[in-house]
Design brief:
Blueprint: E1 11-18, E2 22-28, E3 35-37, H1 43-46, H2 58-76, E4 82-86, H3 92-99, E5 103-107, E6 129-132, H4 142-152, E7 156-159, E8 183-184, H5 187-196, E9 200-204, E10 207-211, H6 217-225, H7 227-234, H8 242-250
Parallel strand pairs: 4-5, 4-6, 6-7
Antiparallel strand pairs: 1-2, 2-3, 3-8, 7-10, 9-10
Helix pairs in contact: 2-3, 2-7
The chain binds zinc ion.
Zinc ion (ZN) binds next to loops.
Length: about 260
């Protein structure tokens, strides 16, 4: 099987049981350290419920992501520009960011938009940065998906738990019971992809940034580390969009589709 990141031949490393019944092979690439399942024929079944009932961390994760994203945007980006939450699920993160004044829009091929109706991404909009939380581990062809994302924006902020080496048969992040996690990365894999697209890659804990900006690793790390403090410090300047968004939705011409 060919690696979906670097196209080199990869080797079968273990088997797992997905959705409690499918015996599935996992392949590891020694060149870029990407781990992937065999071609995922079970995805229709896995995505019957795009957001799994077992995802009890959904609210806390979105709240944490808001604090860290707001701090990164305030420090390194033009906060008045438009941002896209890619594969944004129910739209919770978009709503949370709009609540503190950031012009976020939503996109998702699989999930219904519940909280950010009328704030969908329209093709061709200029996007300062894409956020992609809990996305890359779902991708069968990560490099192609990143290519699509980079057509929309030059920069991507994302979360990804890093695959521990040496590879173990069991790691909670494989989450075989849901069948949705099919692609796993080390920092080497992420570096490889960043370089392939001519980007810099910074990471701290599970937060990663692919960027063209002149940012230093230390600066990125300090902002993520101190994000709670920065968030509170900047909070006085946040101009919530709650009221103006309500006006906008009342007058939204596309409301039937939202
Ligand atoms: Zn590879």
């Amino acid at each position: 099987m060919k690696c979906q990141v670097c196209k080199k031949e990869c080797e079968e490393i273990f088997e797992g049981i997905i959705l409690g019944k499918y015996k599935v092979k996992y392949y590891f690439c020694k060149n870029c350290e990407h781990l992937q399942t065999e071609s995922p024929y079970w995805l229709d079944e896995a995505y019957k419920e795009p957001i799994a009932a077992e995802d009890t961390g959904i609210i806390q994760r979105n709240l944490n992501n808001r604090v860290i994203t707001a701090s990164i945007l305030s420090c390194f980006y033009d906060s008045d520009r438009k941002f896209l939450d890619y594969a944004g699920g129910w739209g919770l993160f978009v709503r949370l960011m709009r609540d503190i004044g950031f012009d976020f829009v939503w996109e998702d091929k699989f999930s219904q938009n519940l909280f950010a109706r009328c704030f969908e991404y329209t093709s061709g909009s200029k996007i300062e940065l894409i956020t992609a939380f809990e996305v890359l581990e779902h991708l069968e062809k990560p490099k192609e998906e990143l290519e699509n994302m980079f057509k929309i924006s030059s920069d991507i902020l994302f979360t990804q738990d890093i695959l521990p080496l040496p590879i173990k048969r069991s790691w909670w992040y494989y989450a075989p019971q849901s069948g949705q996690h099919i692609s796993f990365y080390t920092n080497k894999t992420l570096d490889y992809m960043a370089e392939a697209f001519g980007k810099k890659h910074f990471s701290y804990r599970e937060y990663h940034l692919f960027t063209e900006k002149e940012i230093e690793q230390n600066a990125f790390e300090e902002v993520v580390k101190n994000s709670a403090h920065l968030y509170l410090q900047n909070a006085v300047d946040y101009k919530s969009k709650i009221a103006s968004d309500m006006e906008y939705v009342i007058n939204c011409k596309n409301k039937v589709n939202c």
